User: Fold this.
Amino acid sequence: MSIGEITTLMRGGIMEVLLLATPMLFSALIVGLVVAILQATTSIQEQTLTFVPKVLAILLVLALLGGWMFSSLGDYTIQLFNMIPDMAR
Assistant:
């Protein structure tokens, strides 16, 4: 296995992680910004007020996109397992 193949394999793994994590992180960011604006306007500085909505948003995104995420991860895993015989040569 050459350095180029290893680099391509690592790049594919990193891209898969970014593709799967982006929707949840983006939703937590948006909810965090909205809650921060509400806290700033009302002067309420409660820590759980920021944590709970973010967790709920992440769970909602996971519930909506979970099937796609698991099928994407499964396809990537099958692709990796199919590459094992070529790596053994």
Notes: Residues 48-88 form the longest helix (41 residues). Helices lie at 3-42, 48-88.
